[in-house]
Structures are given as structure tokens and as C-alpha cells.
Amino acid sequence: MPRSFSRRFIQHGLLLCTSAIGTGFLGQYILQKNTLNAYNHPLHKPAVWLDDYPSREAQIDIMSKESEYDIVVIGGGATGCGVAVDAASRGLKVALVEKYDFSSGTSSRSTKLIHGGVRYLQKAILQLDREQYHMVKEALSERGNLLKIAPHLSYPLPIMLPVYKWYLLPYYYAGIKAYDFVSGRQLLRWSYVISKNKALELFPMLKKEKLVGAIVYYDGQHNDARMNIALAFTAAHMGANVANHCAVTEFIHENIQVNNKEGQTETKKIIRGIKCLDRYRNKEFSIRAKCVVNATGPYTDVIRQLDDSSVPKICQPSAGVHIVLPDYYSPNNMGLLDPNTSDGRVIFFLPWQKHTMAGTTDTPCEITDYPSPMAEDVDFILGEIKNYLSSDVEVRRGDLLAAWSGIRPLVLNPNKKDTQSIARNHIIHVSDSGLVTIGGGKWTTYRQMAEETVDRCIQSANLEPKNDCITKGLVLSGGEKWSPTSYIRLVQDYGIETEVAIHLSNTYGDQANKVADLSILTGKRWPVVGKRLHEEFPYIEAEVHYAIKEYARTAVDILARRTRLSFLNVIAADEALPCVIQIMAKELNWNEKKQKEETDRAKTFLLREMGLNLKRDMRRNVPINFTREEMRYYMKHFRQIDVENKGFLTLSDLKRHLQRMKISNSTTDSDISPEELRILMHEVDQNQNGIIETEEFLQLMSAINTGAVSTSHFIKAARIAKIKNNSMVERSGGGV
User: Fold this and answer.
1) Which residues form the EF-hand domain (predicted)?
2) pTM exceeds cut of 0.70
3) Where are the domains of the chain?
4) Which positions ≥6 away from 279 have C-beta within 8 Å?
5) Which of 364, 454, 358 is nearest to 92 (CA)?
6) pLDDT score of 626 more than 70
7) Is 441 left (phi over 0), alpha (psi -120 to 50) or beta?
8) Radius of gyration over alpha carbons of the chain, in Å?
9) H-type helices in 66-114, by residue range?
10) pLDDT for res 40
11) Which residue from 272, 318, 523, 571 has the fewest beta carbons nearer than 10 Å?
């Protein structure tokens, strides 16, 4: 026994010493080689900066009438908007079109981190992979730049890596320290080791059994959709013409005569522009350009094959699912990294927008306009969360607030089979016809990708920029005059409540006053202005008006990207939808048919893409499995409401029962409002036929008992207590 212990002690001691020494030498080498310097690129604005920009419809009219652009960009995600910013900052004439909305695809469905990728560095070191190492190094450099040019939208976030086996502590410590060293002078803050007690103090929800300590390191976090929109309108402020909801239908080709290698003349087909459809106005138009950039993320090959149907695919799409849970699942200022899930993937568990976000999965998929989160992916993430949280925290499926899937445009490596081995490197390819394709990459490196893409455009199309790339340190729209205390002026000058003011300041930066100017009186003593779209969230009606000025043309544009309501709470987004439709209808002159179309489209989006269908299925799929005692108990409550013994409950039954309860309890509250009754009915009436059937009632009771539903307005209002189960008694077979 002592000899065995001594042998293990020596082995672990050698591992610790080796890791520490290796980290020291690696760090010294990297620091000598790393010449990154944040201060070489001071913050600045471009020479041309327009105070305002044309309306969306005016932008399209300008694009259709312009004789020729230097560059036209297809795709309004992070990369496409980054290319537009870079090209415009060099004095080139630029246009950009996006099929849906800016950031409507992968760029709004990320993990919300601005990071180099801890797991990529691990693979780079273990596999001696120089390509992955340089990718991480580049990303960490770009991380530092992005945090500086958009300070209102991004910030450093500490992330904890809990350790449950003491001999793994030096291994993880060496890896995280290497991550610090690769950051060079762009390091946010040094990582550090903490004790078990300190880890539990910083992350009280953490599982304490067998915990030996933790490592805390820093990465960046941001509001990805808003960052993307800031890029789009930074380009617009610099004179670029940008428009969303414009689909490319075909390329404009032109045949030219060129000399081949043998000196003979031959005909070559080159791209001279694109034909588009304004999907909002159903109007076709054309844009002529010297160079066309394909920056469509997962749709990279779709656009390439629109130019030439014979070209091989270069993009391997992979779906990543994220879920959102209530804020009590994590501290508001500390994230968590699970470095070794049950299937080898990495899971992040992060505070974001006063909620808790967890993900992601990594599954090969097909390209679709409507990526949907799968129940098995949600269950996987919930299961991994449960492994790291205290037994005091009951991880319930009913706590799921939203879920989404984003399609990553990974670059395929034909020598490796699984998508986890595919680095998010980018590829720039110029076709024979002149189409410049930027594929792959990641959010954090959008600026570097854009710089290289514009360089290639200049080379391939013989463009003449006025200056070299200046996007390092180029402040994005909203960031120039912003400070962490800017929200105070909004409170003092406009009478906006503090929570709303903080949200506006951290979303729009120094442009927040323009949103406040559109705010209407609340009719209350306080706040003076700023009517909320939903009482639980700081989004206000004025943001809908402002979003329309920022080219929002659908209700989904508002719910998903101009606000993040659908990403934070899909039910709250559904409840706010009528208000959004009402404001947009008035601003954009929608008739009743258009309002219904937009309502239906938004509801389908929430169901299919934001996890509302998963929440409903959680209830429907719970078996009604009560003991005889439980069945009698719940049916007694049902019959107390169904006094006419019809076998179902109507709105009148519910209203009468609640009023009777108030009288019997001698309360002096006013009558139940129609809106409150609607919420109660909607919660239980799953098939939306206007009545609560016996099975629907029992389904809700069963869902509450199993945790598939976390809380219920109906049960609270009807004062139906949860009966204590007796596991030994016979249970019913689920019949009604």
C-alpha cells in the first residue's frame, strides 16, 4: 500500500514538474516570437463618415442606378459586412446585399464568445499542428482589437474550468497558461488557480463533491447580432450601399477575349455583376461591379455553383445547438467550461444578457434556411450541465427558455472524418470567372478575413484603393463616445428607468439617445418615457421604430436581432409579437393581410427555430401516470372548476372559479383582466381550440410533477397544491 501510494505520488509529481517547466519554456519562446502590440493600432475613425445614411429602399434605388461598383458583396453576416467595412475604408465603391436580414444566419447564433479557441490550442500543441497554432494566435490578436473598437458591445468574461482530479490540475494549468502566452500583449488578464472554497464562492451552483480546485481564464463576450448590425451600418456611414432582404438570383456574365498560355486568343466568361430580387417589395434590380465577393457562410457552395454548376464543394456545414436557461443557473459574472464531455466535446456554460446560455454541439448537417434545435441535442446539453452542478440545483427540462441551432461554415479537410477535427480556418478562392469566395473562418477573425479578401479583390480585379487597410483600431458605429457611465445621462435627460438605460447604452452605444428621442410617455410618474415591449425585459417600443430606420422589415428582424427576445425567452417573444406587429404595421403601412402574414411567419420562426415546439412537446410527451390517490385529487380540482360537469373548461368556467376563490378568501382585488385569463387559458389549452379538456388539464399536472414544466400561472391562480407522492402505491396506466 505505501509503495503503491509512493509510486503514484512520484508519477504525479513528475507530471506537475514537467507541465510547469514545459509551460515556462513555451511561454518564454512565444513571448519572444510574439510581436503583437495593441498600441501599434490606436483607435481612429475613417476620413469619410456620413452623419446619416439613406433608407433601405433608397439604397436599393442607388445600387440599381450606379454605373459600376468596385466590389459588390453577397452576404450580410459578420464576414460580408466586415468586407464592406474594409473596402469602404480604403475608398472603394462598395455595395452589399443580404438575402434575409443582417446577421440572420450563423452570425447571430454563435456562442457569443470572442475567443481564440482553447481546444484548438490544445490540438495544436498535442498534434504539433502549426496551422491551428497560427489560427489561435490570429484569433487572440483579433479578440483584443474587437474588444477595443466596440466597447459598448463587448467585454472580458472570466471563465472557470473546474478540476475534479488533482493530477489534472497541472495539465489544465499548463494549457491555459499557454493560451495566455499566445495572447501576447493582447492578453486580457492573467489566468489563475483557485482553491475549492474559492471556486464555490465564485460559482455557488458548482458540484462540490470531489472538487479539488479550478482555473479561471479570460475571453471576450459580445452581443453577436448587434455587433454584426454595427458593422453593416459602419460601412453605410462610410458611404457603402447596403440592403437586406435582397436575394441574388443570377450572375451577370460577360465574354471577353484573352490570350492563353500558347498565345492564342480565346473567349473567357467573367462576372460583371449580379441580378437581385428585393424580397420585401418583390422588385428585381441589377448591380454591376468589377468584382463580386461571395461571403455567404454555409451557402458558400450554393453561390459558387450559381456561377459554375460543375465546381466541387469546399464547405462542410456543421450544426451547433445552444440553449438558454434562467439566470439562477449561473453567476452573472462567471462562465464555466466543461473540457471533457461524455462524448469528447466542449460545453460552455455562460451568463449572457441576464440569462444562462449553454452549448454547443457539433453535428454534421445539411444546409437549410430554417435550422432547428433537436430534442436529443437539448437533452445532451442538459445532461452535461447536470454533471457539473450541485445536487441542490434541479436541472429541469421545463426551465428551458429558448433553444437554437446555427450552421457553422467549416472548411472540409478530406483527410479527417469527424467535424471536430476540422479547424475553422478560412479559404479564399478566386474562380476562373473572377468570383472571390471567402469560406470558413470564425466570428472573432472576421476582420482579418475581410482584409485578406479585399487584398485578393484588389489583386484579381486590378482595383485602385485610396489607401491600405486601416480597420485595425477602426471604431465601429456607436463606440466612439461611449463610456460605461453613458447610461446615466439617459436616465437624467429622458427619465428612462435605469435597467432600460443600461440596455440602450450597451446596445446602441453613443447612438442610444436617438432611440430615447423616439420614446413615448409611459403615463406613469416613473419612468417618464420608455414603454416596454414585455414587462420582464428592458426592450422598449422605441426600439421597433429605430429598427425600422435600420432596415428591419419583418417582425422576426425585431424579435431575433434588433432585440434578442426570441433568443432569451421564446414565450416572451410570442407574447410581445402583437405589439411589434402593431408598431410595424403603422410605420410601414401594412394592411390586414400583410399583418397576418408577418404574424404567421414570426410564429413559425419561434416554433421551428427558437425551440417553442420543444417546449410544447415536453408537455405533450409527458405520460399521464398518476397514483389512484393523485388522480382523485386532481380530478376533484377539475370538477370544482367544471361545475356543469361538461368534461372540459371554458373561459367562463375559469373566470367564475377565480372570482369565487377571491370571495371565499375575502380578497379585495379587482376582477381578473381579460389578458390574465387569456394567458391562463393559453398555458393549458395545447390544441388552441378555446377549451381546456380533461386530458390537457392532467397533462399539465403531470408535467409539473416531472419537471417538464417549471412554473404554471394556471396552478398558482387556481391554488392547486402539488400532492406528495407515495412511491409504493399503484399508479394508473395513464388513462383519463
Assistant:
1) 629-664, 672-707
2) yes
3) 62-108+226-314+414-461, 154-220+318-409, 485-615, 622-726
4) 99, 245, 246, 247
5) 454
6) yes
7) left
8) 28
9) 78-89
10) 53
11) 523
* Angle of CA points 433, 437, 440, to nearest 5°: 155
**pLDDT tens for each residue of 290-348:** 999 999 999 999 999 999 998 888 888 889 999 999 999 999 999 999 887 777 778 89
pLDDT of amino acid 29: 45
Burial of 465 (0-12, 13-18, 19+ CB in 10 A): middle
Q: What is the DSSP letter of 522?
A: -
DSSP bridge pairs for 350: 357
Which residue in 724, 529, 545 sits closest to 633, CA to CA?
724
Q: What is the 3-state secondary structure (H, E, C) of 185-216?
A: HHCCCCCEEECHHHHHHHCCCECCCCCCEEEE
| Chain centroid, CA 471 distance in Å | 24
3-class SS shares of the chain: helix, strand, coil, % to 5: 45, 20, 35
Which one is the CATH code of 622-726: 3.40.50.720, 3.40.50.300, 1.10.238.10, 3.40.50.620? 1.10.238.10
Domain 62-108+226-314+414-461 grouped into CATH 3.50.50.60:
yes
Please give the CATH topology (third level) of the domain spanning 485-615: Helicase, Ruva Protein; domain 3 (1.10.8)
Q: Is the pLDDT of residue 34 over 50?
A: no
Amino acid, single-letter form, for residue 264: Q
Helices (H), 110-256: 118-126, 130-149, 169-183, 196-202, 224-237
- Report the share of the chain in percent with pLDDT over 70: 87
Q: Are 439 and 77 in contact (CB under 8 A)?
A: no
Residue type, 555: A
**Statement: residue 464 has pLDDT above 80:** yes
SS (H, E, C) 385-413: HHHHECCCCCCCHHHCCEEEEEEEEEECC
Residue-level pLDDT at 717: 73
Please report the DSSP string for 29-53 in residue order: HHHHH----GGGS--B--S---SS-
**CB-based burial label for 15 (10 Å; 0-12, 13-18, 19+):** middle
Which residues on neighbouring strands pair with residue 206, listed in sequence order? 389
How far is it, in rounded angstroms, from Cα 86 to Cα 45?
Answer: 12
Backbone angles phi, psi at 137, to 5 degrees: -60, -45
131/731 Cα distance (integer angstroms)? 60
User: In CATH terms, is domain 154-220+318-409 a member of 3.30.9.10?
Assistant: yes
Phi and psi at residue 17, to the nearest 5° = -65, -45
**Residue 102 cell numbers, joined:** 443582417
